[in-house]
Each structure stands twice: as structure tokens, then as C-alpha cells.
Design goal:
The chain is mainly α. The chain has five helices and two strands, in the order ααββααα. The protein has two domains: 1-70, Multidrug-efflux Transporter Regulator, Chain: A, Domain 2 (Orthogonal Bundle), CATH 1.10.1660.10; 72-127. Residues 81-118 form a coiled coil. GO terms for molecular function: DNA binding; DNA-binding transcription factor activity.
Length: 127
């Protein structure tokens, strides 16, 4: 199949397919006229790559994980597990940073509300 059909079947843009190929995540066979041709298996591969991107992995990390998919072995599995553990640790640290940032923002919002209420709101008359 040609690049447009692969993109349509996988639910991605043609630009994404070209990018995946540039990054070494996907390969094609070129026709005599230079057109890219893909097999049906590439549809699932593109979907898999998309899932990895959605999980927050970079193209470099994905390239490091693909040997486990392409040629499973104990060595590749160990390397993939180690790389995924590193990514999980990176994501956990990022989540921790986001929680700290959210908590700081909550405190700043409380302070701003208190200041606003103290300085700009008229006191409610008491009966």
C-alpha cells in the first residue's frame, strides 16, 4: 500500500508516517519511481507507535524499545524493561513536580482571594 492509504488506515497524517520513517521507527520499500510502499503489518506498527507517543515516550525511546517488538529475545526484553522503568521513573518525577506546582498555585490563589476580600470587598452589613 502507498503512504496515503497507510496513513488513512492507521488514523494518522501522511506527515506522521514520513516522520516515523525519518526517525527509523518505520520502513518502506521504494518503487522504481520512488514511491513508498508498505505492508499491512505497518498499519499495526503505526498504531503501536502512536500509543507509545500518547504515553509520553519520545521517538528516541520508542526506537530503543522497537527491537523487543521486531526480534524478541531475552536480551531485548531486558533492555526494553530497563528502558521502560527509566521512562516510568521520569514520568513519576514529572507528576511529582506537577503536583508541587499545583499545590503552590492553590496557596497563591488562597492568598490572592484573602487579599481581595480584605481590601476590595465591602463588609456585609450586620443586622
Amino acid at each position: 500500500m502507498r503512504i496515503g492509504e497507510l496513513a488513512a488506515r492507521a488514523g494518522v497524517s501522511v506527515r506522521s508516517v514520513r516522520y516515523y520513517e525519518e526517525q527509523g521507527l518505520l520502513s518502506s520499500v521504494r518503487s522504481g519511481s520512488g514511491q513508498r510502499h508498505y505492508t499491512d503489518e505497518e498499519v499495526e506498527r503505526v498504531a503501536f507507535i502512536q500509543r507509545l507517543y500518547s504515553a509520553g515516550l519520545s521517538s528516541r525511546t520508542i526506537a530503543e524499545l522497537l527491537p523487543c517488538v521486531d526480534s524478541p529475545s531475552e536480551e531485548h526484553s531486558e533492555a526494553a524493561l530497563e528502558r521502560m522503568a527509566q521512562e516510568r521513573d521520569r514520568l513519576s518525577a514529572h507528576i511529582d513536580d506537577l503536583v508541587r506546582t499545583r499545590d503552590t498555585l492553590d496557596k497563591l490563589m488562597d492568598t490572592a482571594r484573602e487579599y481581595r476580600d480584605r481590601h476590595f470587598r465591602a463588609p456585609v452589613p450586620q443586622d
